[in-house]
UniProtKB/TrEMBL annotation:
PROSITE patterns: GNAT (PS51186)
UniProt-listed CDD domains: NAT_SF
GO MF annotation: an example: glucosamine 6-phosphate N-acetyltransferase activity
PANTHER family referenced in this protein's UniProt entry, alphabetically: GLUCOSAMINE 6-PHOSPHATE N-ACETYLTRANSFERASE
Protein name: GNAT family N-acetyltransferase
Domain N-acetyltransferase: 2-144
SUPFAM superfamilies: Acyl-CoA N-acyltransferases (Nat)
InterPro entries: Acyl_CoA_acyltransferase (IPR016181), GNAT_dom (IPR000182), GNPNAT1-like (IPR039143)
The keyword Signal belongs to this UniProt entry's keyword annotation: no
Taxonomic classification: Bacteria, Bacillati, Bacillota, Bacilli, Lactobacillales
Biological source species: Companilactobacillus nuruki
Keyword annotations from UniProtKB, A to Z: Transferase
Length: 144
């Protein structure tokens, strides 16, 4: 059975598990520089981690925007757990979480190879393509 936990504390195990997943996926697999992965938004976010059989396998974070939305970032699933709907499960949990808080939309910067995944969840591409950490992205938005 999967369990999803969340925290805003940088001293929490949830945050530490999130950073471990992000380091594996973004730094080790995708060669994102560590100094770009850990940023100045760390203390402004809520962190979510999905645990499968007590192992941290997927993560995401968000922070509120100035106009009643949220910006989701750092969505990652460990390689051996991909294509098992864990990313979908985690994001649906976050969608329910923020809907209860009456946010009006979710925006994120999707790596271009992941656009199909986000489109299946209802996101639409907004804006032009850009490069972040050497990876092509598009911003995507979901109205709640």
């Amino acid at each position: 059975m999967n369990e999803i936990k969340y925290s805003t504390s940088l001293n929490s195990l949830i945050y530490q598990d999130s950073v471990a997943i992000r380091t594996e996926v973004f730094v080790n697999e995708q060669n994102v520089p560590k100094e770009l992965e850990i940023d100045d938004l760390e203390n402004k976010c809520t962190y979510f981690v999905l645990y499968k059989e007590n192992k941290a396998v997927a993560c995401a974070r968000f922070f509120p925007t100035a106009d009643n939305g949220i910006h989701v970032q750092r969505v990652a699933v460990l390689k051996e757990y991909r294509h098992k709907n864990l990313g979908t499960e985690l994001l649906n949990y976050i969608f329910n979480f923020v809907t209860k808080e009456n946010y009006s939309y979710i925006v994120l910067g999707a790596q271009d190879h992941a656009q199909t995944f986000y489109k299946k969840l209802g996101f639409k591409v907004i804006g032009k393509q850009y490069q972040e950490a050497g990876i092509l992205h598009h911003d995507m938005k979901l109205e709640l």
